[in-house]
Structure formats: C-alpha cells, structure tokens
Amino acid sequence: MTKKDVFHIRLKNIELQTECMMDPGLKMRPVAIISSPHPNGSIISLSPEAEEEGLSRGMKVSVIRKMSNRTRLLPYNRSLYDRIHGYIYRVLSSFTPIVEPQDVGEFFLDMHGMHTLRGNIHNTGLSVIKHIRSQTSLSSIVGISINKLVSRIVTAIIPERIHQVESGKEAQFLAPLRSLVLPTAKQDPVHRLLKFLLVKQVGQIQSMTKASDDFQTLFGVHAPALYKESQGYDTSLVRPFQLKDHILEQTILPEDTNDESILYAVVKDLSEQMAFKLRQRRQIADKVRLEIHYTDGYKRQGTGVITRIDDLSVFNECKRLFERANDRRNRIRTILLDVWGFQPYITQEDLFSTTEERNVSLSMAIDKIRSKYGVQSLQTANVFQALMRT
Fold it and tell me: Do the beta carbons of residue 295 and residue 36 sit within 8 Å?
C-alpha cells in the first residue's frame, strides 16, 4: 500500500506578516493588529517588539494605550488577509491537486503518492516553504504525518520550519503534549472533567483508555472520539475546495457589545435579510451556519437547517443557533449568517389556513415593499431602535 502523507501548512501571524509585506516600514517595530479601535477592542496578532513592550494577545485597546505609546495599532483587515489566503491557495495547488483551505493562513495538502513524482517528502516540504516565500515573501511552517489531526497539531506546537511524525509513532508524539491539543478535549463537558481529574497530558488520557469500561462511563458519548484522537487516529479526507452556491449576510457592529437587546436585534435583521432572499429564490436550505466573532479574536458557531421561509421561522432558527454559539461573556464584534444546500420550497394547498401559510403570506406582502425600496426599508420597531443605538 502506498504511504499516505498529509501536509499542514501554517503561516503564523499571517495578519502581521501581510501588513509588513504591504508596508515594509512596519518591520522591527512594535505593531499590534486589533479587532476594533474601540477601547474594548483587543489584540489579535502582535510583533515580537510589541511583546517586549509588555503587550499580549487579547489585551484591550484601552490598556494598550496606557502601556505603550510606541506601538502601532492596525485594524483587522479581513478582506486583505482573505485575498492573500486565496493567492497562497493557488500557489500550493501547483504541488498537488488536492488542497483544502482552513482558517486564514492554514491549508491541508494530500501528498498521497506524490513522492514518486517529487522524491523525498521532507525535501518537498522545504520546497513548499521556499515557494511560498518566493511568491509572497511570507514565512510558513509544515507539519507532516499520515493524517490531518496530527499534521495540524505539529504546526500548532512545533516551532521548526518542518517536522514529520513517522507513521506508527503518532501516539508517542502526542503523549507528552497538553490534553487541549485534542479537539474533543476542548469541548466544555470534556474540558471540565479533565480539569477535575487533573489530567493535563495526552499520555494520561492514553493510560485511561486501557480501562475501556471506566473510560466510557466517564466520557460517555465523547469517549470514542477522545480515544481515537489520543492515539492519533484520523480517517477524515483532505477535501479540495469547492465553490458552493450560498447566501452570506454579515454585520460588523459599529461598537463591540454584549448587550443582548442589540445582539438579538442584529440577528433578527440578518435573518430577515436571509429569509427575503430565500423567498425570492423559493428555496429552503439544508444548512445554515451562524458565526460569532468576539473582540479578542475568538469565534464560535452553530449550524442548523431552514425548513420554512417566513421571517418568524427563519429568525427563530437563527436565534436558537445564536444562543447555542454565544457561550462567552466577551463583547461581540461580528455576526455572520451563511446558508447553503438549497432545496425547492414546496407547499401544498390546504382547505384551512395554517399558521405557517399566514406567516409566509405576511412576509411576502412585506417583500413587495422591500423589493421596491430595499430590504431594510421596513423593519420591526425593536430592530430599528437597537440598530439606531449602535
């Protein structure tokens, strides 16, 4: 059987690297990329010189200005970073036809069988790093293993430009690492239990799995995934990027907030824009994703399905996803809705009017006004008042 090799490419601090590429004068200076210039905005990425000033990731803008007048604060430029991300994707596609983009500055490459064409896999990794540098002036690191899980962990913890975990040594590599390198260990119920049990390393989890019944009792539905991850097992495939038909709505709040009345109003506004577009297409959706971006750079998301296209039904589903995803007390910067997997919306005439039919009829009557004067020309009072406050 041909050996399977999976590369994980990570461009650390890609935001800062991109800004320095655009303005070389920023090099060797204290620079911080912030989520918002508002006092409650926070540092997402910073230079070593800024760290020497005593600054750290997640620090509030109000604190930064008191601690360091020398540090240059730059707003988070998502569109610029996305363009660089897309360009690097095209650069990497010259090495293999199967490239899976992840978060900004991260990519998986399926190098299965590519050693017969390109030779030594380690040297191929170095070639990738050099090619990215020559095309973009950006530095990157490469993690190599037989699966996506281990390769991504490699680039997250190993500072070397390239590091390979040999096949069969995945569990040995993971054993001394912090338990939180495993995706399942980060989930709240598992994290709380590991903390209670004073389990700090993956090796301790590996030892616990030997008593399979007790392990199953402790971790319940999470036990199978936690067992596989602790051993370095991962059968997920590297999937090439595919363009998908989708509807995307996003609101960047003028001022970071955790005021529930404002946030629910934003969710309602986004859901009504989404519902309007679904009715225009006469479609429902198999997938809807609500994503929350916090001021400190973290994000949470929830996924669901849209089976009805009236404003109230779409809002209720989006509200449910928001309540599930918003598990932090930090202020929120951005809320995003992404819908895809469209199916035709089919209705069956009924002798008696149903609640759903009445809601759809009301929404379609409102659509006539919105089609003529714009989606936001007609809003409910709570949405209008809350958005005016921001």
Answer: yes
